[in-house]
Amino acid sequence: MKSSVNKKRYIIVFALIGVLSLGFIKTDLFEVSKNLDIFNNLYRVLNESYVDETKPGQLMKTAIDGMLESLDPYTNYITENDLEDFMIMTTGEYGGVGARVGDV
Known about the structure:
Low-confidence stretches: none
Mean pLDDT: 79
Largest sheet: none
């Protein structure tokens, strides 16, 4: 009997946590969607109406780099074109004796 009461309590607690979590997720998704709309409108207006010619790809890359840099200086966005070079640099075998030659 005591076991079934504990199970019911756990179910109720987890159900409440789930319902409350959904409310926070919905709010976050709305804010993300709203901010993406603002960014999209600004990006479009800049590309269409800016006084000088813009490069849409470079403008987007600069925006992405700025966003990531504001969070963490070690996080980088790697474009599809740069991915192959990145994979070569970060995988494979490295050799050598670990010596450095220089003037004394």
